[in-house]
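Instructor's aside before we start: the two examples that follow are unrelated to each other. I chose them only because their records fit on one page, so don't look for a connection. First example below.
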Amino acid sequence: MMNKLTSGGNMIWESSRMIMPQHKEAAQRQLKEELKRERLELDDQEKEQIARFMTQALKTRQEVRLRMYHPYENIYLAGVIDRLESLTARFRIDGEWFLMEDIMELSWNT
């Protein structure tokens, strides 16, 4: 039985199966960039609709469901809006702050 290190084996082809760590990392980075999602740009009317919805949700204390922008994952939030800041265009759910520009979809949580 011949193993990979004995003479007579084709060492040139055996070494081609190995991949250097930096090459593996570069390939993983490239794949991640290919899967990266672009942020959708909302027009002024859509931004205004989101602002009205968020204001109503804050006033009524009704639970909302939001799909948020993330370059690689689907992120969903569900909860009651604790605070809304118009100047900084951010809101708080369960003590954590989020940007209004990251809202991709919104609805009432039923």
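Example two begins here.
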Amino acid sequence: MTQYILAIDQGTTSSRAILFDEKGARLGQSQQEFPQIFPNDGWVEHNPEDIWSSTIAVCRSVLKDTGIDAKSVASIGITNQRETTILWDTETGEAVYNAIVWQDRRTSEFCQSLHDHGYSEMVQAKTGLLIDPYFSATKIRWVLDNVEGAKEKAQAGRLAFGTVDTFLLWRLTNGQSYKTDATNAARTMAFNIHTQEWDQQLIDILGITDVQWPEVMDCSDDFGVIDAQWLGAEIPVNGIAGDQQAALVGQACFKPGMIKSTYGTGCFMILNTGNKAITSQHKLLTTVGYRINGEVTYALEGSIFVAGAAIQWLRDGLKLFTDAKETQRLAMQAKNDASVYLVPAFTGLGAPYWDPDARGAMIGLTRDTSVEDIVSAGLRSVCYQSKDLVGAMQQDGAVFHSLRVDGGMVVNDLVVQFLSDILDIRVERPEITETTALGVAFLAGLKCGIYQSLDEVADFWKANKTFEPEIDSATSERLYQGWQNAVERVRTRN
């Protein structure tokens, strides 16, 4: 009898549900976008009820469309936008404020004060992270300081913190399960990645002591059972991982030195470093790649805040096209000199710059600059930012000869070819490019017994297409130098 796994992929701009069989074949998918909220410059929020309702809707939709009864689903996996912060009243189940999204920059002054007080080295040593508004802990502090009644609810023991996975799990189990996994915990700036525990010293320093913290589990574990009212049957949740770590699993990067890069709203490059937590000297993040059977696999990560979001801006903000599928055709009509550069620092610059106050710019415009040139610059900006990350990893001692890519942007051959050109390495695109959902399905399947080992999971990975560099190194270097010059014009700190 066929066994099915339902993967919930709750992302920054949409919620998706994908149904897989035990061979890793995608049987059906449902996706629903939800509104983005921008109350102030550099602020990004979501309504938690939009996250919840869209998640339930896509789960129900994919089961209906595939004709699969919920009773036939062996397990559920949840993967999610990381760092996004929700605080809710445990008595009412209602969030006390909107979800503050990972891209949000509102806590930059508080982060600077932490730097000024000399906490940077301690934070990096314990968490593997740099002090930045990106992470959850300073967002929690902002809610406590700025939302009426939040501090009082925390002091009364009624205020629960969770990243999106925890919020969804709590709702799906009707408040019976309050848990997260090690990869999401590792992105909060309050979790010690070496002891694998919430760090009380950091929590006290950050002034977020009274908030409730979820139990931290393995990525492949018993997280609880969803109530039958939601999908028509009780189904165990056996896998949870932050979206980028889930993609690391989905790309079968299980050996030290293997590297993947996901191109969605942002871009996230993760290098498997095995059982060693390597401290970056070039502003990359040390993080948990995955934790299975109590054993931690560490990773080195570079985070780019705006990748696919730049294309979304060109579509919705500038209205240069109506569908992202048009970008390949438009970019192919651009001039070959590539003199236009788009630096999409809409919410600051991520790795390796970590400049929350930088803002976007378009450089090199002339009277004959066309829509095609601007679209090409938007696509190339993602590849140039990837080059920034690769350079930092190489300076930290990483040696690699190929890169596995996934995410919505890599269906565009032009993007992946230019990525290979500018990085001067082989780039491999898998048959299933949405490896985030696949990865968490594998994690759920490992726990419920569908899969026996990571080696078995690795056998499912197959390349759809391999890209090799097609331009000479001198041209690549000239183009990248133009990018670096453009970035320098928007930076506010060195």
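The longest strand covers residues 295-304.
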